[in-house]
Each structure stands twice: as C-alpha cells, then as structure tokens.
C-alpha cells in the first residue's frame, strides 16, 4: 500500500499561498529599496516581523522558550536563514532588477537538494530529480537572455548566489534538528534575533532619511513586516517541517514565476511567452514533487 508524503490539498494550499506572498514581494521590495538603503530596510522590517509573531504566540498562549540544548543550532540556522539570506538579497536587489534577482536567488533548490543528500541522508529519487530538473529548467528559461545583462552587475549576482546557498544551508539544518519549539515561536525568534545585526549596520554604513520616503515605500515596508516576513516565513517553516528538504525547496520555484509577472504588472519589467513556458515547467515540477508517493513501511529518515 502506498501513502502520500503528506496531504496534497494541504500542501498545495500552503505552497500556493506562500508563492503568492513571496512572489509579489520582489517588486514590492524593489520599490522600498529604491528609497531605503538595504541595511536600514532590514533593520526596520526584520525585528518588527519577529515581534509580530512572538506577540501572536503569546496571545495564543504558546510557549516562546528556546531549549538550551538547541541554542547553538538555533544560532547557526538563524544566521543562514535570516541574517545572511535577507541581507544578501536586499543588497542584490539594489544592483539587479527584481526579476533577475529573484531568478538567481531561487537557485536555492539546487543547493538544498545536494546538501540534503549529505546532511539528511535524503534520496534524490528519479521523480524528485525530474521535478528539480523541470523547476530549474523553468528558472533557466526565465533567465534566458538576461544572463548577459545580469553579468554586467557582478556584485548583485554574487550576493544573490551567496544568499541562495545560505538559505539552502539554513533550510537543510532546520529540517535536521528536533527543536521542541512551536513553529510560531521558532520563526519569531529567528526573525527578531537574526535581524538585530542590521541595526548597527544601518547606523554605521548608511545615512537614511526615513522622513523623506514616499507613501509607496512606507507601504512596502509594512507589507514586508506583516505579510512577507512574518506570515511568509512562518508558512515556509511549516512547509519545511512537513516535507523532505529537497521537496520543500522545489516548492519555492513558483515564487519566481509570480515575481516576474508581478514585476511586469507593477514595474513594467518584461513578460511574454517565455514566462508562460517557465510557468508550465515549474507547475509540472510542483505536481511531481507534491504528489510523490512513498511505500508504506519504508525506513524513516
């Protein structure tokens, strides 16, 4: 008898919701970062998003204590998932269009799939390999002729690739540890503590005039605090807890497609048949990944 990895309807709902929230956030962040320097933007949005989740946990009566036994692991995962990844893509967006940045950043599934083999002992089945190939093919199709243009901004490309690798590392090790902490509290503490280094960075490296920002930039910050960072990161951690690391990584690939479409609608960035082809490839990858079945009684990792 064969059973699904997890409930496909529940998984599809989580992945679809997160893909929309994170996908539309790329052009929204571009609006904010056109007026607010990256360290300052992160110093504003990150800690506030963490406090929102911790407050929500307390209001629901959920314990927010982090067990001492996982403190070191918590520090490492927070550094990768929040501090390095968020700062890397914020800096990358200042050098690249939102479409190019999101495509390079979402090479994450490739790195996560390779790391999961060595760190978690996960198998890359033929079905998962095909899903990964289709998904990365969609990213390659989207990037297409932009490769040459992106190469003219090597700093942005370097930060996005580095960020993708750190995000993949944090995802795999988040899956490896038995935390003993509710996801809401774990997410809140990671966002709050992982974002605190941005505060001295903003003071030392930048001189932002927040009183001069436009209403659009202010709304972009609020969207990041309450939607993309707090709710989005919470949903992402739930997906990681439910799915094998390489499958959850593949499930992020819908965000770039939505991000490119949103970039076109909001910022006038390119959109055409290429994006539709990429959408078909990524949707095929998601179907293969989410509806994979495992033999009941197989060894648990």
Summarize the structure.
With 301 residues, this protein is mainly alpha-helical. The protein has 14 helices and two strands.
Shape: globular
- Helical run tally: 14
The low-confidence parts are 1-6, 294-301
Strand order of the largest sheet: 1-2
Order of helices and strands: EHHHHHHHHHHHHHHE
Average pLDDT confidence is: 83
Please compute the radius of gyration using only Cα atoms. 19 Å
Helix content: over 70%
Give the strand tally: 2
Distance between the termini: 19 Å
Proportion in β-strands: under 5%
Counting structural domains, the number is 1
> What would you call the structural class?
mainly alpha
- Biggest beta-sheet profile: 2 strands, antiparallel
Descriptive notes:
The chain has one domain (2-293). The protein has helices spanning 8-33, 38-59, 71-93, 98-105, 108-119, 126-143, 146-151, 154-176, 183-195, 198-205, 215-242, 245-250, 254-267, 273-290, and strands spanning 2-4, 293-295. Helix 2 crosses helix 3 (71-93) and helix 5 (108-119) packs parallel to helix 8 (154-176). It has a two-stranded antiparallel sheet. With 301 residues, it is mainly alpha-helical. The longest helix is centred in the C-terminal third of the chain and has 28 residues, at 215-242. The chain contains 14 helices and 2 strands. The protein is globular.
């Amino acid at each position: 008898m064969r059973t699904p990895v997890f409930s496909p309807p529940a998984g599809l709902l989580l992945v679809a919701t997160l893909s929309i929230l994170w996908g539309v956030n790329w052009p929204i962040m571009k609006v904010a970062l056109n007026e607010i320097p990256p360290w300052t933007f992160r110093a504003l949005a990150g800690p506030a998003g963490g406090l929102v989740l911790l407050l929500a946990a307390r209001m629901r009566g959920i314990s927010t204590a982090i067990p001492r036994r996982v403190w070191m692991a918590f520090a490492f995962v927070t550094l990768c998932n929040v501090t390095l990844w968020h700062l890397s893509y914020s800096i990358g967006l200042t050098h690249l269009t939102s479409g190019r940045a999101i495509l390079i950043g979402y090479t994450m599934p490739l790195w996560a799939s390779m790391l999961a083999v060595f760190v978690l002992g996960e198998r890359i089945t033929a079905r998962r390999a095909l899903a990964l190939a289709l998904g990365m093919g969609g990213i390659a199709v989207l990037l297409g002729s932009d490769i040459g243009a992106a190469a003219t901004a090597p700093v942005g490309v370097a930060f996005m690739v580095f960020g993708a690798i750190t995000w993949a590392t944090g995802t795999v090790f988040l899956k490896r540890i038995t935390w003993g902490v509710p996801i809401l509290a774990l997410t809140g503490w990671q966002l709050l503590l992982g974002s605190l280094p941005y505060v001295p960075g903003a003071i030392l490296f930048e001189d932002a005039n927040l009183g001069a920002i436009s209403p659009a930039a202010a709304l972009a910050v609020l969207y990041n605090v309450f939607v993309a960072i707090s709710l989005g990161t919470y949903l992402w951690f739930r997906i990681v807890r439910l799915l094998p690391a390489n499958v959850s990584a593949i499930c992020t690939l819908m965000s770039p497609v939505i991000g490119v479409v949103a970039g076109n609608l909001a910022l006038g960035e390119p959109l055409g048949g290429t994006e539709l082809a990429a959408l078909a490839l990524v949707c095929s990858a998601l179907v293969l990944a989410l509806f994979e079945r495992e033999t009941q009684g197989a060894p648990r990792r």
